[in-house]
Fold:
Amino acid sequence: MADINKLVEDLSSLTVLEAAELVKLLEEKWGVSAAAPVAAAIGPVAEAAAETVEEKTEFDVIIKETGPKKIEVIKTIRQLTNLGLKEAKELAESTGAKVLEAVSKEVATDAKSKLEAAGAVVDVA
Structure:
């Protein structure tokens, strides 16, 4: 068996280029790759970073189109927002207007279903 201490001494005296050549020769001889453990270590780090993305908690209800029942949509907007008739009408007639801003998911989905029942095309963002 080879003298381990002598082997450590010889390896310590190698230059960077010589060490790279040694790695290449050992990979060919043993049929392994020195890069595989590094790639395996990156996987859990990437997964942990993806898990830290927070779920969205505030939503906007945006009216895309009033639809054929404009009066029903205006009434529904008034119920949801407590706006006056004039303001609700202006909101209904504005494509891309935010009916509700920064509301919970439950409130946003409820408002969307009510507005769609009145005939509007609505998006929750």
Q: What stands out?
A: Helices lie at 4-12, 16-30, 36-51, 70-81, 85-93, 105-117. The chain has a mean pLDDT of 81. The longest strand covers residues 59-65.
